[in-house]
Specification:
By secondary structure, the protein is of the alpha/beta class. The protein is built from six helices and five strands. The chain has helices spanning 11-18, 22-33, 43-52, 56-62, 73-79, 85-94; strands at residues 5-9, 37-42, 66-69, 105-108, 120-123. Strands 3-2-1-4-5 form a five-stranded parallel β-sheet. Helix 3 (43-52) packs across helix 4 and helix 3 packs across helix 6 (85-94). The radius of gyration is 13 Å and the shape is globular.
């Protein structure tokens, strides 16, 4: 097990952060201030969050503790057939890979949307 904590924000967690959600704000703060905490914003989830709450994508992308994950070719191929690219990109980002061998948690304000998915969920709902 790694001594690092990796967390992927889904679009609902991004919108919640933009609205001042305390738990989401703490995650952002810790990712900025504490070694070993890593917070990711998948591009497709940023787009969906910005559609729901304009300005969210620009705000999150400017935060020093948040790493924006591009929609590169492997990600695009993995999510292309999915109904929601936002959820699919978050799920793809949470899967184990060389940079995150243990995978990542998906932070969400709507944990029910991840029922039946093979992801570890971090509930940020109030």
């Amino acid at each position: 097990m790694s001594d690092h904590l990796h967390i992927v924000l889904d679009h609902t967690a991004m919108v919640a952060a933009g609205r001042g959600n305390v738990v989401a704000s703490r995650l952002i703060h810790r990712a900025h201030m504490e070694a070993g905490w890593h917070l990711y914003a998948p591009t497709c989830a940023l787009v969906e969050a910005d559609r729901a709450r304009p300005g969210t994508a620009e705000h999150l992308a400017a935060l020093p503790g948040v790493t924006v994950l591009d929609l590169d070719l492997p990600a695009a191929l993995a999510i292309a057939s999915s109904g929601s690219w936002a959820d699919a990109h978050a799920r793809y980002a949470a899967e184990p890979n060389p940079e995150r061998p243990d995978g990542a948690f998906v932070a969400t304000a709507e944990p029910g949307r991840w029922a039946g998915e093979l992801v570890r969920v971090l509930d940020v709902s109030p």
